[in-house]
Amino acid sequence: xxxxxxxxxxxxTGGTSGIGRDTAVLFAKAGAKVVVAGRREQEGQETIExxxxxxxxxxxxxxxxxxxxxxxxxxxxxxxxxxxxxxxxNNAGIEGVWVPIIKQSEEDWDRTIDINLKGVWxxxxxxxxxxxxxxxxxxxxxxxxxxxxxGTAGAAAYSASKHGVIGxxxxxxxxxxxxxxxxxxxxxAAIETxxxxxxxxxxxxxxYVLSCHPIGRFGRPAEIAEAVVWMxxxxxxxxxxxxxxxxxxxxxGPNSPG
Length: 258
Prior knowledge:
Elements: E1 9-13, H1 18-29, E2 33-38, H2 41-53, E3 58-62, H3 68-82, E4 87-90, H4 106-134, E5 138-143, H5 156-176, E6 181-188, H6 194-199, H7 203-211, H8 221-232, E7 243-246
Parallel strand pairs: 1-2, 1-4, 2-3, 4-5, 5-6, 6-7
């Protein structure tokens, strides 16, 4: 892998497993110092060990992205540790409880929106402040989903949160384009992660969802991580306010289960 992020400092939220962990490792391989944030300390330290094994330097910061004080502290600790912040992948998110709207609790709605949407907004707020202070631009990628582009029956809160992330990203990109801060989203379909295992564990559900991917399989975390690294690099220097879909053909057209 070329070291297109050499000398940069990157942040990955939700970096304790799956796509976030793979992205943290690829950031390191591309030459960046990496700050990993998450709520699970043991898994976060395991990610840092992988970052160091890849030849990188990193630190873990325990943080809940739905709390402003913790996000503020996260950015301050990142800067204290490595001096600046150049790139960020706002990946932290949950699936919530997938039930019809009439059965969904207000508590679950609030928790899903707080982490998936408010959390991205808070991260943007404090990341952009730091990048503006530095005056040298930056690149931020927010985790959305194909559920931010289409409706998903039984997952209203999740789908609403991801639609919100896409709208938020467009607004932020417009606000800070002249400051050379690029802000985009990545929109995966089903990826082989612990979240997907929880959502699609029932055999009949797994078969149906798999059938919606014309490529014939779920994606791999590393495939999303590769895209995020590219989006954060200068190779994507003319890209901002966009949503990159990585879905194995899911959105290309109507698919019949098979």
